[in-house]
Design goal:
The chain is about 80% helix and about 0% strand. With about 190 residues, the protein is mainly alpha-helical.
Amino acid sequence: IFSLLLCAVIQLARTRAQFQMLLLTTTLVLLPTALTGHSGGRAYHELAVASWAVHITAITIWFAVVLSLLFKLFSSRGSSEVEVSKVSRISLLCFIATVVSGVVNTSTRMPNFYALVHSEYGLILLIKVIVFILIGTLGGIYRLWLIPKLANTSNVLLKMISVEIFMMALSMMIGVILSQTPYPVVTIIAN
């Protein structure tokens, strides 16, 4: 919901300074919620909570800027190569922050590799990883192929951004399911 609100506000930003202020405000608004959650109720609590805060902030900003670009492409204003490049750079930074924070957060929850492939939590996490790999592949296609040829590919770009939005929403839904799934627990059997 916050991503949708941020997306609407981004549409109003006309200068780089206004846009940067929106990103800073978003971060400041999201951090208290993320930092006061109960992420990582076990060992490494601080690391789990901090990585969760980065994860939520990065995915919110990423979703909002990509959705904003989609709205601009659908509108009569269209979108310039400069604007698409800017969103691509922000998306790449948010993608990296989301992946790194997700790996760090997962490391606080997964006792070992066996739990990753033999627990419900781990299997759902693997599905999310596959979706993220697909999103990253789309991002690579934008940066390497579509942005340099924007004048001739705006229709393709519109379709690919629509797919990216769908996959991001799917990833967030998987994240919600994951948040409701118990973490794997290591059981030690005494001799």
